[in-house]
Q: What sequence folds into this?
């Protein structure tokens, strides 16, 4: 067995999952990665990661199939629960496509962890489980005490936020009820280089800003964090015995217009949004708890340039 022991990563082939697998392998862990379709071309990159030949084992598992999760988690002392649906567009049946796999899926993972006597579980939540809260005091920084309001998420039909809020709150409740060691991490919009050959939602957000030439966009606050820094945060949450509860994980809050200006300086020739509609947006967020655990993040320019280079190399974005 690899020197650091055996851990499982759900959603191993996705954008964030691939980086988590890569970092774990490079740190000497043996990894059980769950994917829904091990033979599919979209997961082929995993086998090419350094140390994968010896230390990566892929398991076919669906979040709604408890037995498949037990088989993947058996023998692991830690689990990184990354898998959750992140649709590229609107979904026609949110209950089936989002809520069930996120909430019941997380419950299945945790039940499998209890059965297999896992020591620690790190659950990937989202800033979406934090910030949709109309009752949070206007001038108060949003920290780990702030939860998205489930009724409000339903009212505004933001079912992704609802799915992540349900999954995370139920995970922390499960920890209390069953004495399982669970830590949750809530990243902002995750950007950075892609390892997988397909486009995921958050990368598409940046790609669209670079090439769609939108007539007008709301000048919203973007809450950005690098995928490599999120993967580091997950490892930190796993490896530090003192880690507990939830951790907000974000590096930069920047208005869309300012982000575009930054990109325009770096890459003058893409087809950027033309106008911005000013909106009230004053929320502020804090990753102080995670930073106190030892977390650091890289400069935004590095995230942007490595993202753009990887899209170009994958043939998703023209070179300019
Ligand atoms: N990207 C962001 O900006 C962001 C921000 C905050 C939090 N997050 C969270 O980070 C995690 C990873 O997201 P990502 O950005 O890496 O997106 P992604 O590339 O779309 O990855 C999602 C992963 O979930 C898996 N999955 C979805 N439904 C599943 C099911 N029913 N059974 C088994 N696996 C299932 C997918 O597997 P298949 O390949 O088989 O579809 C895929 O591996 C998610 O929990 C997401 O909510 C992401």
A:
């Amino acid at each position: 067995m690899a020197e650091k022991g055996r851990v499982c990563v759900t959603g191993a082939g996705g954008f964030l999952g691939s980086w988590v697998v890569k970092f774990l392998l490079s740190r000497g862990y043996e990894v059980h990665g769950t994917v829904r379709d091990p033979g599919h071309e979209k997961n082929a990159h995993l086998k090419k990661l350094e140390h994968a030949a010896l230390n990566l084992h892929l398991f076919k598992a669906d979040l709604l199939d408890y037995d498949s999760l037990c088989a993947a988690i058996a023998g692991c002392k830690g689990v990184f629960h990354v898998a959750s649906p992140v649709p590229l567009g609107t979904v026609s049946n949110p209950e089936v496509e989002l809520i069930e796999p996120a909430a019941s899926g997380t419950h299945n993972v945790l039940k499998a962890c209890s059965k297999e006597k896992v020591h620690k579980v790190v659950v990937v939540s989202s800033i979406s489980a934090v910030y949709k809260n109309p009752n949070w005091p206007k001038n108060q920084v949003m920290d780990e005490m702030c939860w998205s309001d489930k009724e409000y998420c339903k009212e505004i039909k933001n079912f992704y936020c609802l799915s992540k809020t349900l999954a995370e709150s139920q995970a922390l409740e499960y920890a209390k009820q069953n004495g399982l060691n669970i830590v949750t991490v809530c990243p902002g919009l995750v950007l950075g280089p892609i390892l997988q050959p397909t486009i995921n939602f958050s990368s598409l957000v940046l790609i669209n800003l670079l090439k769609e030439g939108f007539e007008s966009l709301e000048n919203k606050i973007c809450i950005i964090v690098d995928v490599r820094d999120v993967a580091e945060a997950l490892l930190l949450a796993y490896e530090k015995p003192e880690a507990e509860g939830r951790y907000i994980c974000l590096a930069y809050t920047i208005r869309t217009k300012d982000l575009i200006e930054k990109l325009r300086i770096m890459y003058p020739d893409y087809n950027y949004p033309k106008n911005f509609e000013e909106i009230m947006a004053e929320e502020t967020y804090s990753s102080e708890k995670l930073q106190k655990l030892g977390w650091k993040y890289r400069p935004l320019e590095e995230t942007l340039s490595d993202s753009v280079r990887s899209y170009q190399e994958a043939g998703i974005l023209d070179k300019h």
